[in-house]
Amino acid sequence: DGGITQSPKYLFRKEGQNVTLSCEQNLNHDAMYWYRQDPGQGLRLIYYSQIVNDFQKGDIAEGYSVSREKKESFPLTVTSAQKNPTAFYLCASSILAGQANSPLHFGNGTRLTVT
Amino acid sequence: GQQLNQSPQSMFIQEGEDVSMNCTSSSIFNTWLWYKQDPGEGPVLLIALYKAGELTSNGRLTAQFGITRKDSFLNISASIPSDVGIYFCQGAQKLVFGQGTRLTINP
Fold it and tell me: What is the mean pLDDT of chain A?
């Protein structure tokens, strides 16, 4: 079955440590995205990538970094510079990069807790 | 960044009741998408709208693309317990989402 896999489901880190969240898709989608979800704030875009080796900042990119070395993979690193990293992180993909009509397909998220 | 205004933020209803929620924006969109998120999972597409004035149904769900292209509506008829979750609207070309409507159903 095709889909998006995020791992791990739950992640715990100490403050000051960088942590990388994995996102892999086998849908052959061009575009991939990272969103952050906090209670009552909906989904906020962190980074997105339209093609391999290229990515763009979203609305809340500060304290995060990404890479897109392969079409299937779009890992997100939460750095120690991110002031409030505890959140639910969602990865998504879509068929055509920048295509207005392409719905997003989401993974099941990673819940990161930083103490 | 721009956000869509989605309302209500939460709803508490009895099983069997109908549900209405909406999404508005100051910008025009070419596509409106509605998703549902079950607890602990990622959102899943429910309905896609591509044309102003379009009315589309998916089972008990009906969504409309506002004629001004600045709003959209989602209705759920005869709610059942599995309708519980968070519903999101998305204005597609700007990758922005509404804040979500959390639906709770009392049996």
Answer: 92
A3-17, A92-106, B26-40: least confident range: A92-106
Instruction: Provide the chain A residues 35-74 that lie in CB contact (below 8 A) with chain B.
Output: 35, 40-45, 48, 58-60
CB A58 within 8 A of CB B1: yes
d(CA A64, CA A81): 8
Q: Do A43 and B88 touch (CB under 8 A)?
A: yes
- Residues (pLDDT < 70) of chain B are 1-3
User: Chain A neighbours among B 85-104 (CB < 8 Å)?
Assistant: 88, 90, 92-93, 95-100
- At residue B36, the 3 state secondary structure works out as strand
* Between B1 and A47, the higher pLDDT residue: A47
Q: Which residues of chain A lie closer than 8 angstroms to B52, CB-CB?
A: none
**Band of pLDDT at residue A102, cut at 50, 70 and 90:** confident
